[in-house]
Every structure is written in structure tokens, then in C-alpha cells.
Specification:
Blueprint (H helix, E strand, L loop, with lengths): L7 E4 L3 H14 L3 E5 L10 E3 L6 E3 L6 E3 L2 H7 L12 E5 L2 E5 L3 H8 L5 H14 L8 H26 L9 H4 L16 E3 L5 H9 L4 E5 L3 H4 L8 E4 L3 H4 L9 E11 L9 E4 L8 E4 L14 E10 L8 E2 L3 H13 L6 E3 L1 H5 L5 H20 L13
Parallel strand pairs: 1-2, 1-10, 2-9, 6-12, 10-16
Antiparallel strand pairs: 3-4, 5-8, 6-7, 11-14, 11-15, 12-13, 13-14
Helix pairs in contact: 1-12, 4-5
Bound molecules: flavin-adenine dinucleotide and uridine-5'-diphosphate.
Length: 393
């Protein structure tokens, strides 16, 4: 394969890479080669029909599209219609089921009595206040300081410990900031303006984005095996792991990976919801995905269902990296790699792996649209250097 024949090389067929490829081909009329070392497009958002049950499964775990950005929402709607699916999650702890994220139903259930918003606020404030006012230095401090010890011990500590394989006192407070705490019965997992499931599944979106005469897709190809076929200063959009690009010269960045165990059950409905979390530490998996529930509008003829049990662990270099752990040591390593980037003025490092940031899909697409306007377009118009920018915004 001769990468040098194309105007642009995109490494990774996930949302970041596919968005840039689509824009370059449709807006600039340039040619693009998209390569992925996996044998499918879509990156971690890839979905496929399970041959045994006919249920559309998300091979890398349940993906729910949600965003507040009208720009991103309108962009993606060129390639798909969305259903009105609203995600709701439940957490099992000590044999009982709680609504997640924490809301008035969760608090009432955890304390064993109905509470008004005011009562719930007072109970939580008393527990959180007892924890002290110090600034949150880590995930545990942040969680106990905002929800109190009872809810933290019941629903957060064990789940977080299992998910990150790290003591919550050593994890960044940001991780838990993703979860809201509500003093109403609003039990939606996300509170963004726009939310839904792509009606024909995720892979159909990528098929449509990449179906352009200017785009060639090469699957099962590792960039580093074919990089020598490039031209000097050819534009590369690199969405693989940043530490690998630099040959791990400054060390490996910490990642968490997840393993999924697939099971088919001869029942129409296994658990009654798309995602159920398991908070107790003696339950080895973190959650169970039952994909059928993501598309209640579809008719599933068989009384069968596919579930995935999810197990978390640290990623080695040969594992799929999923979540950046981002310890203080990781931040230092990342800084070292960032100082090496200017030596590659023709490379844009983007997406979740290339920026070492936990990006949701809408953030990956938003960052790609921005990069297209501020970096890719000027570069292809003849600017010799890429304008530096933080790609995760
Ligand atoms: P990716 O999708 O990871 O794509 C990068 C691609 O690059 C991969 O396909 C990889 O094979 C390829 N690649 C890497 N190195 C090379 C190489 N050397 N040569 C060739 N190809 C290479 N987001 C949401 O918005 N909602 C959710 O509900 C949600 N749930 C999630 C659940 C899980 C379990 C996980 C792990 C993520 C979830 N996400 C969710 C995040 C979502 O997956 C990411 O936002 C999205 O995948 C980011 O797209 P990307 O293009 O940056 O990266
Ligand atoms: N979390 C938890 N219990 C739950 C759900 C989430 O303790 O039942 C915590 C956990 O620390 C997790 C964080 O909240 O890492 C963010 O949750 P989110 O659902 O965003 O994680 P993701 O879906 O990205 O794995």
C-alpha cells in the first residue's frame, strides 16, 4: 500500500478520524486514506448484529449518544436519524437496586424512608459536613464531601475500586464530577439537550461518513507497518495512543482496559434495563450490558437476548486502551510527549488515544470539527506548520 498517493492519511476509523476524513473529502475535495488496525470501522463505537440473537451489540460496551452542542448534533444527523431513547442506569448494592446517578429515589432508598428534597439535602449536608471542608484532593474526598459517607460506601467506593483497580484516594476528583447528584426524582443518566440512539446503529453512521469517492479505507493495517510509504510532510491525523507514536521513549501512559464476557440467554429479557452496575466488591464484574433495551422500537422475534459482563483491569501494551488513568506520573509523561510534538509539524494528534483524554463521542466529533477548521484546512491550503491547539475542547 502506498500512503504517499493520498493528500491525507487518517490513522484510526473512530469518530475523530472519520469526522476529519469526511470533512476533508466532502469540503476540500482532497483524497484521504483511512487505516485502522482493527478489521472494522467505527473505533470503540462499533456495533454489529449478534448472529445468534439478532440483537445489535456494541462490541466495546454500551454507547449512548448525548450532547449539548447543536453543531455536533446537526453534523451527526446528516448521517443518521436518532431515536428518543433516554438512558437510565441502576446500581445493585447489597442485594438491593438503586437508581443511578444519585437522585431523590436513591437517597430515600439508601436511608430507608421517603425524603423531601429539603430533608435529603439536610441529611447529605450533615454527613458531608462531618467530612470537613478541605478542598477535594482525590475522588474519595470529593465524593464524601458532596454525598456523604453512607451513599459513598454503598454505591461508589466498591464500584470505583473495581473499575479503576486503584484506591479511590489515589484517583483524580474529576472522575466523579461526571456524575451529577440530584434532589429530584429525575433519573436520567445524562442531562444533555440532545440524546438518542442512532436508528440504524453506530456502524451505519461510519459507513455513510466514509462512503465518498475520495476516501479509501484500509482495515487490518497498523500505521507503523506502512508509515515508510508516506511522502515527507504529508498530513497525518493520528488517533492512536500517543506514547506508541513516540516509541514509548518517555515511558508508557497508564490505561485501564475492560474485558467483556458474552452470554446468550434463552429468555426475552434478562435484566429489564440496558445497563445494571454492581457496586459490591465481591461481585467480580462492574456491570452487565443487555443491548436489546437500547432499541425498544425494534421487533426482536426470538425469545433470546445477548448480555455482556464487563470486567476492568490495567492495560498492558498489547491490550486495548480504554480509559486514561491520568495519575500525577501520567501527567508528567504526557507533558514529555507534548514537548516532542513540534518535531512532527505534519501530524495532528487527536481523539481519545491521541490526546490521552477521556472523550465522549460528541467531544471527539466536536474536537475533530474544530481541528478541521483550524488546522487541517489551513495546512492543506499551504500553511507549512500546524496551528497548535488543545484538541479535547
Ligand atoms: P477510537 O474510537 O478509540 O478510535 C481510534 C481507532 O484508532 C481505533 O479503532 C484503533 O484501532 C485505531 N488505531 C490505534 N492505533 C492504530 C495504529 N497504529 N494503526 C491503525 N489504527 C490504529 N462515549 C459516549 O459519548 N457515550 C457513551 O455511552 C460511551 N460509552 C463508552 C463505554 C466504553 C466502555 C468506552 C471504552 C468508551 C465509551 N465512550 C462513550 C467513549 C467513546 O468510545 C469515545 O468517545 C470514542 O470512541 C472516541 O473516538 P476516537 O476516534 O477518539 O477513538
Ligand atoms: N460510579 C460509581 N458507581 C456507579 C456508577 C459510577 O461509583 O454505579 C463512579 C465511578 O467512579 C465511575 C464514575 O462514577 O468511574 C463515572 O461514571 P461513568 O458512568 O461516567 O463511567 P463510564 O461509563 O465512563 O465507565
Amino acid at each position: 500500500m502506498q500512503l504517499g498517493a493520498f493528500d491525507v492519511v487518517v490513522v484510526g476509523a473512530g469518530f475523530f478520524g472519520a469526522t476529519i476524513a469526511e470533512r476533508v473529502a466532502s469540503q476540500l475535495g482532497c483524497t484521504v486514506c483511512v487505516i485502522d488496525r482493527r478489521h472494522h470501522i467505527g473505533g470503540n463505537a462499533y456495533s454489529e448484529l449478534d448472529a445468534e440473537t439478532g440483537v445489535e451489540v456494541h462490541r466495546y460496551g454500551t454507547h449512548i449518544f448525548h450532547t449539548n452542542s447543536e453543531l455536533v448534533w446537526n453534523y451527526l444527523r446528516r448521517f443518521t436519524d436518532f431515536t428518543d431513547y433516554r438512558h437510565r442506569v441502576f446500581t445493585v448494592a447489597q442485594g438491593r437496586v438503586y437508581s443511578m446517578p444519585i437522585n431523590l429515589a436513591t437517597i430515600s432508598a439508601a436511608f430507608g424512608r421517603q425524603m423531601t428534597p429539603r430533608e435529603a439535602s439536610a441529611v447529605i449536608a450533615a454527613e458531608a459536613g462531618a467530612h470537613g471542608e478541605q478542598p477535594a484532593r482525590n475522588l474519595e474526598d470529593k465524593a464524601v464531601g458532596s454525598i456523604g459517607r453512607t451513599l459513598y460506601d454503598l454505591l461508589i467506593r466498591g464500584y470505583t475500586q473495581k473499575q479503576w483497580q486503584t484506591d479511590p484516594r489515589e484517583l483524580s476528583a474529576d472522575i466523579i464530577s461526571r456524575l451529577p447528584v440530584r434532589l429530584t426524582y429525575d433519573d436520567r443518566y445524562f442531562s444533555d439537550r440532545f440524546e438518542g440512539m442512532p436508528r440504524d446503529g453506530y456502524t451505519a453512521i461510519f459507513d455513510r461518513m466514509l462512503k465518498h469517492p475520495n476516501i479509501a479505507v484500509r482495515l487490518g493495517v497498523d500505521f507503523f507497518d506502512v508509515a515508510e510509504t508516506m511522502r515527507p510532510q504529508q498530513l497525518v491525523i493520528y488517533t492512536g495512543p500517543i506514547d506508541r507514536f513516540f516509541g514509548y521513549r518517555c515511558g508508557s501512559l497508564g490505561w485501564r482496559t475492560v474485558d467483556f464476557e458474552r452470554e446468550v440467554h434463552d429468555v426475552a429479557d434478562f435484566q429489564g434495563a440496558a445497563v445494571i452496575n454492581y457496586a459490591d466488591e465481591d461481585v467480580p464484574f462492574t456491570r452487565i450490558h443487555e443491548f436489546k433495551h437500547l432499541h425498544p422500537e425494534r421487533h426482536h422475534a426470538l425469545a433470546k437476548t445477548t448480555i455482556y459482563r464487563e470486567y476492568a483491569r490495567f492495560a498492558g501494551r498489547d491490550d486495548e486502551p480504554y480509559y486514561p488513568i491520568n495519575t500525577q506520573a501520567d501527567k508528567k509523561t504526557l507533558d514529555s510527549y507534548r514537548t516532542m510534538m513540534p518535531a512532527h509539524p505534519n501530524v495532528i494528534f487527536g481523539g481519545r488515544l491521541g490526546s490521552y483524554k477521556y472523550l465522549d463521542m460528541h467531544q471527539a466529533i466536536g474536537a475533530a470539527l474544530k481541528s478541521f477548521e483550524h488546522q487541517v484546512r489551513p495546512f492543506l491550503a499551504g500553511a507549512d506548520m500546524l496551528e497548535p491547539m488543545i484538541l479535547s475542547d
